[in-house]
Design goal:
Strands 1-2-3-5-4 form a 5-stranded antiparallel beta sheet, covered by helices on one side. The protein has a single domain, classed as HIT family, subunit A (2-Layer Sandwich), CATH 3.30.428.10. Helix content is about 20%, strand content about 20%. With about 110 residues, the chain is an alpha+beta fold. The chain is globular. It has helices at about 5-10, 60-75; strands spanning about 20, 25-30, 35-45, 80-85, 100-105. It contains 2 helices and 5 strands, in the order αβββαββ. Bound molecules: adenosine monophosphate and zinc ion (ZN).
């Protein structure tokens, strides 16, 4: 997707604060952090949102969750607690239409979310 911001970040065309990269995934710090740790984990493959996932993406989604765990340990938030969040569609506040998993932690969070 040539005009997708997160494809450009994954390709290195748009700079970001990279925290991890694998063959299939890219993780970088959110530009407007909502917690002391706020990392976005994305598949390098352009997938618009949760509804666009297909059975061939099953492995990738599992890899994202495992990477979230690794990063939570590296950030020191594994014991205190963290969230992994996907905003899907307008009501949920999705602003960038390349699926991304927010990894949030380092402060007490409320439930339900706003
Ligand atoms: P969402 O509302 O779930 O679509 O989240 C999009 C997230 O992308 C927001 O938390 C933004 O702060 C973040 N964001 C937007 N542009 C950039 C960028 N260039 N680098 C890092 N994070 C970004
Ligand atoms: Zn994209």
């Amino acid at each position: 997707m040539s005009d997708c911001l997160f494809c450009k970040i994954a390709n290195g065309v748009v700079p970001s604060q990279k925290v991890a990269e694998t063959d299939t995934l890219f993780a970088f710090r959110d530009i407007n952090p909502q917690a002391p740790t706020h990392i976005l984990i994305i598949p390098k493959k352009h997938i618009e949102n949760n509804l666009s996932l297909t059975p061939e993406d099953k492995l990738t989604i599992g890899e994202i969750m495992l990477l979230a765990n690794d990063l939570a340990v590296k950030e020191g938030i594994d014991k205190s607690g963290f969230r992994v969040v996907v905003n899907n569609g307008a009501d949920a506040g999705q602003a960038v239409f390349h699926i991304h998993f927010h990894l949030l932690g380092g402060r007490i969070m409320l439930w339900p979310p706003g």
